[in-house]
Amino acid sequence: MFKFDMPGLDLGFGANLGSIGGLALATLVIVLYLAPSLIAFNRGVELRWAILILNVAVHDSGIAWLVALYLATRKVKTPLDQPA
């Protein structure tokens, strides 16, 4: 009576990942997409919220993703020790 046939994710060139493979691929893409934000929050970067907004709001630009990745991975400037 009811047919529940779920073919999974068909990539179009003969590769069918199935439901679990499609879920794994979607998870990988999301993690790579949010990598700059994840790195910034993990490192405790001062501009982490700005990086998250840049990463999510300007999602159509690969350049914005590269800028966010740069901001997340650049060396944190430490203040110089002042002699007393």
UniProtKB/TrEMBL annotation:
Q: Alphabetically list the UniProt keywords.
A: Membrane, Transmembrane, Transmembrane helix
* Entries under InterPro entries matching the protein: Phage_imm (IPR016410)
Q: Which residues cross the membrane?
A: 12-35, 47-72
Question: Protein name, please?
Answer: Superinfection immunity protein
